[in-house]
Design a protein that fits this description.
The longest helix has 30 residues, at about 410-440. This protein has helices spanning about 20-25, 30-45, 55-70, 100-115, 130-140, 140-165, 185-195, 210-215, 230-240, 255-265, 270-275, 315-340, 365-385, 390-395, 400-405, 410-440, 450-470, 475-495, 505-510, 515-530, 535-560; strands spanning about 5-10, 10-15, 170-175, 200, 205, 225-230, 245-250, 280, 295, 305-310. Helix content is about 55%, strand content about 5%.
Length: about 575
C-alpha cells in the first residue's frame, strides 16, 4: 500500500496511507482530513505529523517544539472556519497533547451564538470523474497526432501495398539456343531473315523459320533480360554462381521436332519429344528466384507434362509466379500455331478446363489474399503499441497515485484511458482504410459497413490487450518484450501469410485461439464473398473479437484489484 503526504505552507501535516488517514481521523474523505490538519496548523499548539504510539507522539512533540521556537510551520494562509461544522474527533491518541485553550473559547462562542450552519456534504464519489479525466487526455491528443497516429499507419500500409503482390521484374535469363547455328542471338537472326521469313504455311500447316526465336521474343524486357550463351555448361555455371536467374535451353532441331510432334503426336520418338521441349533451369535460392526444369506443354494426342524436375524451392511465391508466366507465354505460342493451322484452340491446352471462379478474379494478386490480414494486424498492433505502457508510465511519473488520492477509482482511470485511446485508435484505422481504398485501390466489394465494424472491434481488442499487459507488467521493458514476442506467433498462425488449412492439425486448432484468425477469415468472406453476418464463417470473427475485448478488460480490472493499483 502506498503512502501519501499532506503539506500546507511548506510543512508536512501527515504522512500515511490514505485508508489509514481516513480511519485515524474518523473522516469520510481525504479532504476532511486535510481540513482538520489545517485547523490544527492554524492553532500552532499541536503536532501535525501522524503518530500512533507513545514513542512516536513524544518524538512528534519534540519536533513540534523545535519548529515552534524557530517559527517553522506557521502558515501565512488564513483558514476561514465560519462556514464549516466541527469535524468528528480523531482516533489518534491525545494523551500527550496539551489541551488548547482556544477549544474552550470556541465552545463558549458556540453556546452563546448557536450552532453554526452546516456545510454541504462532501461527496465520496464524483460522477464526472471519468469525463474530467477523459477531457484532460483529449486535450493532449493534438500534440501526438502527427507522430503516433498518422505517420506510422501511413508508412506501414504503404510499405505493404508497394512491396507485396507485384510481378518480379529485372530478372536475368541465360539463353542457350542451339538452333541458331552461326547466329549469336535471335535478334540478329530476325534482322537478317525478315524479308523471306515465314513462320507458318497456312495451306500446309508447315512450320517455318526458327520457332525457338518466336518463343524467346515473347519474353520481353519487363519480365527479364536475355543473355545469350554459346554452351549450356557455362550457363549452368553462372546460374550456380548467382549471376543469372534462370537458364532457357532449346535443342538444335527444336522447330523440326515440334513439327514432327504436331503431325505424329504420340507416335513421335522419345528423341523428337525431348528436342521439341523448352527446358528451363532456375536458381534454387531466394536471392535469384526459383528452381525447376520445365518442358513446354504438349498438345495434339500427347498427354501434357509441364514439370520435368522440381528441386526444393526456397522462394515459393516467386517460383510460382515465374512458372505461371512462362507457361502462359508458351500457351500463347501454341495457341497461335493451332489457330493458324485452323485446328481447335483447345488442342494447345492441358486436358483440364478451369472455369471462371465463383468469387474473385481468375488470376488474383497475392496482395488480395494478404490485404485483409495485414489491415487487421496493423490496427491490432498499433492499438497495442498505444496502450501497452500507458499505465506503467503514469505509475512511474506519479500521475496514477495523485489521481487516486483525488478520490478517483482505478476503474474510472482505466475507463478514461479506454475512451481517449479509442478515439486515437479509430483515427489510425481511418487512415489505414483511406490509404488502402483510395490510394492503392484495394476494393471492399461487399458489406463495407460490417467490414469496418469488424476492423474496429479488432482495434479495440488490441487496445484492451495493451491495457492488460500494462497492468500485468511492472516495467516498460517487460511490456515491450511481451508485445514484440506475440507479434510473430500472431503473424504466422493467423492466416495472414498462408492459409490455416495448410497447417498441421494441432497447430491449426491453436491458431484459432489467436485474436485475429477468425476475424481475418470473416473479413475475407465479407469483402470477397458477400456473405452475411449470419454465416458461421462471418459471425465467428465478430464473436471472437467481442469475447477478447470483454475477457481482457475483465482480467485487467482483476489484476488492478489484486495488485491494489
Amino acid at each position: 500500500m502506498f503512502q501519501i503526504g499532506l503539506m500546507r505552507g511548506g510543512q508536512l501535516l501527515a504522512e500515511q496511507s490514505p485508508d489509514d488517514l481516513i480511519a485515524a481521523y474518523n473522516a469520510s474523505t481525504l479532504e476532511e482530513v486535510f481540513l482538520l490538519l489545517s485547523r490544527r496548523q492554524g492553532d500552532g499548539t499541536t503536532p501535525l505529523v501522524q503518530a500512533d504510539t507513545p514513542s512516536q507522539v513524544d518524538s512528534a512533540m519534540d519536533v513540534f517544539e523545535n519548529q515552534k521556537h524557530k517559527g517553522v510551520g506557521e502558515s501565512k494562509e488564513t483558514l476561514v472556519l465560519d462556514d464549516f461544522a466541527e469535524l468528528p474527533p480523531t482516533t489518534v491518541s491525545r494523551s500527550h497533547f496539551p489541551e488548547p485553550a482556544e477549544y474552550k473559547d470556541l465552545e463558549l462562542t458556540v453556546a452563546t451564538t448557536g450552532t453554526p450552519p452546516h456545510p454541504p456534504p462532501i461527496p465520496t464519489k464524483k460522477q464526472n470523474n471519468t469525463r474530467s479525466i477523459s477531457y484532460r487526455r483529449y486535450s493532449a491528443v493534438p500534440q501526438r497526432v502527427s507522430s503516433s497516429i498518422i505517420i506510422f499507419p501511413i508508412l506501414e500500409i504503404s510499405a505493404f501495398f508497394l512491396a507485396i503482390g507485384g510481378q518480379p521484374h529485372g530478372l536475368k535469363f541465360a539463353v542457350v539456343n542451339d538452333e541458331l547455328g552461326n547466329y549469336s542471338n535471335c535478334g540478329e537472326y530476325l534482322t537478317q531473315n525478315s524479308a523471306n521469313l515465314t513462320w507458318l504455311d497456312e495451306d500446309t500447316c508447315r512450320l517455318g523459320g526458327k520457332l525457338s526465336c518466336q518463343f524467346l521474343e515473347a519474353i520481353n524486357d519487363t519480365m527479364g533480360v536475355k543473355v545469350y550463351y554459346d554452351d549450356l555448361d557455362t550457363a549452368i555455371y553462372d546460374l550456380r554462381k548467382g549471376r543469372v536467374t534462370a537458364v532457357i535451353y532449346t535443342a538444335r532441331n527444336f522447330s523440326q521436332a515440334l513439327q514432327t510432334r504436331l503431325e505424329l503426336g504420340s507416335s513421335a520418338t522419345d528423341d523428337e519429344i525431348v528436342e521439341s521441349q523448352v527446358i528451363i533451369s532456375v536458381d534454387t535460392t531466394g536471392k535469384n528466384a526459383i528452381s525447376s526444369l520445365y518442358k513446354a506443354p504438349e498438345f495434339h494426342r500427347v498427354s501434357p507434362s509441364t514439370i520435368l524436375r522440381s528441386p526444393p524451392v526456397t522462394d515459393l511465391q516467386l517460383s510460382q509466379d515465374l512458372k505461371w508466366r512462362l507457361l502462359r507465354l508458351y500457351l500463347e505460342f501454341a495457341e497461335n500455331i493451332t489457330i493458324a493451322c485452323q485446328r481447335p484452340i483447345k488442342l494447345a491446352h492441358i486436358p483440364i478446363d478451369f472455369k471462371d471462379p465463383v468469387y474473385g478474379e481468375k488470376n488474383p494478386s497475392y496482395t488480395i489474399f494478404m490485404a485483409p490480414g495485414v489491415i487487421v494486424s496493423l490496427v491490432y498492433f498499433l492499438s497495442v503499441s498505444l496502450t501497452s505502457t500507458i499505465l506503467l508510465v503514469e505509475k512511474m511519473d506519479g500521475i496514477w497515485g495523485r489521481t487516486l488520492v483525488a478520490g478517483v477509482t482505478s476503474s474510472e482511470v482505466l475507463m478514461s484511458h479506454v475512451i481517449s485511446q479509442m478515439v486515437q485508435t479509430f483515427i489510425q484505422m481511418v487512415f489505414i482504410l483511406l490509404m488502402s481504398l483510395y490510394v492503392f485501390g484495394f476494393e471492399i466489394r461487399y458489406n463495407f459497413t460490417l467490414a469496418v465494424v469488424l476492423i474496429a472491434l479488432q482495434a479495440m481488442a488490441g487496445m484492451t490487450f495493451g491495457f492488460l499487459m500494462s497492468s500485468l507488467c511492472d516495467e516498460i521493458r517487460t511490456a515491450n518484450y511481451f508485445s514484440l514476442g506475440i507479434f510473430y506467433p500472431y503473424l504466422l498462425t493467423s492466416g495472414i501469410m498462408w492459409p490455416v488449412e495448410a497447417m498441421p492439425t494441432v497447430l491449426r486448432y491453436i491458431s484459432y485461439t489467436m485474436p485475429g484468425t477468425l476475424a481475418i477469415e470473416s473479413l475475407r468472406n465479407l469483402i470477397m464473398k458477400d456473405w452475411t453476418l449470419l454465416h458461421p464463417q462471418v459471425f465467428g470473427g465478430f464473436l471472437s473479437s467481442i469475447a477478447y475485448i470483454v475477457v481482457q478488460m475483465a482480467l485487467c480490472l482483476l489484476v488492478m484489484k489484486y495488485k491494489k493499483l
